[in-house]
Write a structure and sequence with these properties.
- The protein is an alpha+beta fold and 279 residues long.
- It contains 5 helices and 17 strands.
- The chain is 18% helix and 38% strand.
- It has a 17-stranded mixed sheet that branches.
- The longest helix has 15 residues.
Length: 279
């Protein structure tokens, strides 16, 4: 709650963006400093009383720029691939350049480039494959977790648990997702993916994101699923991943996991003092 001494008297601008339906509120803290509390993040995430988003991104100054991500429940997220691509697409256009470095809080420096077709690609870095780095609660084989369904654990700055299934339509994601998110093997909770291999370079995937729930797409989840499928010998290193909201393209190269796909800057808006002071 805000005290009277902290009353906000000006509007806060924001941008609404999405990548393959994975939607974000982006606040540019370089324009004016903002004080983001967990209460404010949760209020903004409310799709009825706020703005609504899967994740919130706060931009601040950095080498090129720094971004901090928040989940809809107010917790911080160390990686958000689609939001990074959305922000990169806007910055690349504004700066009239084809390459950019983005410092992501908790993940480090990520390189973004404009592809020849005009889409934006981001190198999400090297996957974390050791149990301590993901992290897991104990030393287990990350390629075959002791969980029903034999999932794979992968770190992409945030933890992921990927199940490979024969029929993705038969999965009750709303019921299973929260159970796995809070599984005791994942001390920081986990993102959960169910993936069906369609071909040697094609996957259909659905995702439950920690702190948010079911989302139409997830960039870091797509990267983690591609890495898990390669480690299982199910696909090659370049793969098309079809999600509920669209298609992403993942390429696990020697320098990291690259992700490309659609981005959209939907609209600009302002948060009113009335809303900000109501928390």
């Amino acid at each position: 709650m805000r005290g009277m001494v902290d009353m906000v008297t000006s509007e806060w601008p924001f941008m609404k963006m999405h990548g393959a339906g994975n939607d974000f509120v982006v606040i540019d803290g370089r324009v004016a400093p903002v004080d983001l509390s967990a209460d404010l993040v949760r209020a903004l995430a409310d799709r009825h009383r706020g703005v609504g988003f899967d994740q919130l991104a706060l931009i601040t100054d950095g080498t090129d720029l720094t971004v901090t991500y928040y989940n809809a429940d107010g917790s911080q997220s160390a990686a958000c691939g689609n939001a990074t691509r959305c922000i990169a697409a806007r910055e690349l256009a504004q700066r009239k350049t084809n390459a950019l470095q983005i410092e992501v809080t908790g993940r480090g420096t990520l390189n973004a480039v404009r592809n020849a077709d005009g889409s934006t690609a981001v190198n999400m870095g090297h996957p974390q494959l050791d149990w301590q780095d993901i992290p897991l609660a104990q030393d287990v084989d990350t390629l075959s977790l002791p969980i029903d369904g034999n999932p794979v654990a992968t770190g992409m700055g945030n933890p992921h648990c990927t199940f490979f299934v024969d029929d993705i339509a038969a999965i009750d994601l709303a019921a299973i997702g929260p159970q796995i998110e809070h599984h005791p093997l994942f001390p920081e909770r986990t993102n959960v993916q169910f993936a069906q291999v369609i071909g040697p370079d094609h996957i259909r995937m659905r995702v439950w994101e920690r702190g948010t729930g079911i989302t139409l797409a997830s960039g870091s989840s797509s990267c983690a699923t591609a890495v898990a499928a390669v480690r299982r010998g199910l696909i090659g290193r370049k793969v098309q991943i079809d999600l509920d909201g669209g298609t992403l393209y993942i390429d696990w190269r020697d320098d990291g996991v690259w992700m490309s796909g659609p981005t959209a800057h939907v609209f600009n808006g302002t948060l009113t003092p009335e809303f900000l002071n109501s928390l």
